[in-house]
């Protein structure tokens, strides 16, 4: 049986509830899911209900839930969009499995979550431009997803910037 405290239970509930809308409202739901993914950083800074015993393991476990909701959305697509989505999903799952197996965040850096930004950018594009995505836009979205996520993963798991600060302390560095 899991030994969770109240703070962890609240974070789990918020993260799961914040992921579900993407299934029904891909555009707003994906934005909400990503914001909710970051919410645990705020919650850990402000709640004092037992702390989070192993943040990275909790976070990666909860990431799987929103990633599955993103996958559900992408399975409704066809052609390259669907194929690339499935490939990027599996790619990240391999990294998460390695992370859990060896308890080493370097695997999260080796297998970045390109899937998250790919889905977000495609959903945003489809919302803004209801027309068919051109080859240029397709390649641009893929490359942007890759480079944006690499920078994010290096920031979070490579140089571990947020490990040294609470989120509020980190924002104070900029003002």
Structure description:
- This protein is mostly helical and 175 residues long.
- The chain has 9 helices and no strands.
- The radius of gyration is 17 Å and the shape is globular.
- The model has no long low-confidence stretch (mean pLDDT 86).
Keywords:
175 residues, mainly alpha, globular
Please indicate the percent range of residues in DSSP E strands (runs of 2 or more): under 5%
Instruction: Write the element-wise H/E pattern from the N-terminal end onward.
Output: HHHHHHHHH
Number of strands: 0
- In angstroms, what is the radius of gyration? 17 Å
The percent of residues in helical segments reads over 70%
How far is the N terminus from the C terminus? 44 Å
Indicate the mean pLDDT.
Answer: 86
Summarize the biggest pleated sheet: none
Low-confidence segments: none
Helix/strand structural class: mainly alpha
**Number of DSSP helices?**
9
Dominant shape: globular
């Amino acid at each position: 049986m899991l030994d969770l405290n109240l703070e962890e239970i609240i974070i789990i509930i918020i993260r799961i509830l914040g992921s579900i809308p993407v299934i029904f409202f891909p555009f707003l739901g994906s934005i909400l899911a990503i914001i909710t993914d970051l919410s645990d950083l705020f919650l850990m800074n402000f709640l004092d209900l037992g702390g989070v015993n192993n943040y990275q393991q909790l976070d990666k476990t909860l990431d799987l839930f929103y990633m599955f909701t993103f996958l559900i959305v992408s399975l409704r697509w066809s052609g390259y969009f669907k194929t690339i989505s499935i490939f990027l999903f599996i790619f990240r799952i391999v990294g998460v499995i390695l992370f859990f197996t060896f308890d080493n965040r370097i695997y999260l850096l080796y297998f970045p979550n390109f899937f998250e930004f790919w889905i977000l950018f495609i959903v945003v594009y489809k919302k803004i431009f209801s027309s068919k995505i051109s080859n240029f836009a397709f390649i641009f979205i893929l490359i942007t997803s890759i480079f944006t996520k690499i920078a994010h993963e290096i920031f979070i798991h490579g140089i571990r910037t947020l490990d040294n600060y609470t989120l509020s302390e980190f924002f104070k560095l900029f003002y």
